[in-house]
Specification:
Largest sheet: none
CATH superfamily: Amino acid/polyamine transporter I
Oligomer: single chain
CATH architecture: Up-down Bundle
CATH class: Mainly Alpha
Radius of gyration: 20 Å
Number of domains: 1
Number of strands: 0
Order of helices and strands: HHHHHHHHHHHHH
Helix content: over 70%
């Protein structure tokens, strides 16, 4: 890749692609949390909610990226020490809880996908997720940037093909939202969905080192807000053709692919969805490892690769047990919704108040 093109990609697009790859895993990839937060309000409400989400996401990420840039905060411990001071752990507690719930959703989704493709027990899919995450999480930052960035790019292409296939078969039924009236609660759900997913932001802090000025950080945040909702818009259009039956499906993507017909596209698409689950697991577990490594480096030590893999595998095992105990619908409906309010208090509100104030007060250090 040409140097100028690479720098443009790293500064303006990479954070959005990495964040999209992290957010899409689990509920987003399966379509389940899009149903829970958007389509439950009817297709018109889903359109309103996703529009609110895109706007709020762009603003929130722009502020977040600039705050990280001026404080050189590329792991979440450093970030929240600057944002919350001595009570920085108020974010870490819900974050670590959310990590277990999120990985449980991913484990359940991986099991559903692999079982649907091969007919094997669901535990095969969840175990495969564990192995893949454990291997990738010990790779370096540069490798992760490439895997997460280009993996998300491929995912966008498949969502375009997915939308095209649905359009071929169902046509105007994809735009059924014009037959409904949006409800105000849909806008609130859009806001909630963004706040819920701020828990995934630590999964991309490591790739914000490329910014050189405020313009780049803010532009990257706005682009990220657009990029992260683009696949969701395509997905919601496709799901609208199956409203309201789609509301009861534990894995909406599998249901739609079944309606489209079982062919090579369905197989490849579900394999790619499995990869998005791996992306998400790797992204957020890399954030945990970076946090532990940062603490150890302050004491003159470093986190060994074996320990990185051990932390990742330990989290995934606990989450798989949780996934076996509860279904994916229950995990998203109760776990994700409850945690959204914790992140409003520990991240969104402080960032948009204290964070904005500190950005406004920041002055570039004078040259020595």
């Amino acid at each position: 890749m040409d140097g100028n093109v690479r720098r443009f990609f790293e500064r303006y697009l990479l954070p959005g692609f990495v964040y999209t790859g992290v957010v899409i895993g689990g509920g987003y990839a399966t379509g389940r949390d899009l149903v829970q937060f958007f389509l439950l309000h009817n297709p018109a409400g889903a359109a309103l909610g996703i529009g609110v989400a895109a706007a709020f996401w762009g603003v929130l990420l722009a502020v977040c990226f600039e705050f990280a840039r001026i404080h050189h905060a590329y792991d979440y411990r450093t970030f929240f020490k600057h944002l919350l001071g001595p009570v920085w752990w108020l974010f870490e507690v819900p974050f670590l809880i959310m990590l277990v719930i999120g990985l449980a959703v991913m484990g359940a989704a991986a099991g559903e996908i692999v079982a649907g493709l091969t007919g094997t027990p669901k535990l095969v899919g969840t175990s495969g997720l564990l192995v893949a995450v454990g291997i990738l999480v010990v790779t370096g930052t540069r490798v992760l940037e490439r895997v997460l960035g280009w993996g998300s790019t491929l995912l966008y292409l498949f969502y375009i093909v997915f939308l095209w296939r649905c359009w071929q078969q169902y046509g105007a039924e994809l735009f059924v939202f014009t037959q409904f009236t949006p409800v105000p609660a849909a806008a609130v759900s859009g806001f909630q969905y963004v706040v819920m997913n701020v828990s995934m932001i630590p999964g991309l802090l490591f790739c914000l080192r490329h910014f050189e000025n405020r313009r780049q950080a803010v532009a990257a945040g706005v682009f990220a807000g657009i990029l992260v909702v683009t696949p969701a818009v395509a997905f919601l259009l496709c799901m609208s053709a199956f409203y309201p039956a789609i509301l009861e499906q534990p894995v909406p993507i599998s249901y739609i692919l079944g309606q489209l017909g079982a062919d090579w596209f369905g197989v490849v698409f579900q394999l790619l969805l499995f990869f998005t689950l791996v992306q998400t697991g790797v992204g957020i577990l890399h954030a945990v490892n970076e946090r532990v490594d940062g603490t150890l480096r302050e004491r003159g030590r470093a986190l060994p690769d074996a320990a990185r893999a051990g932390i990742a595998v330990g989290y995934v095992v606990v989450s798989i047990i949780l996934a076996e105990q509860f279904g994916i619908i229950e995990l998203i409906a109760r776990g994700f919704t409850a945690m959204a309010w914790a992140f409003i208090l520990s991240f969104a509100m402080p960032l948009m108040t204290v964070g904005v104030y500190k950005i406004a007060r920041y002055r570039v250090p004078a040259a020595v």
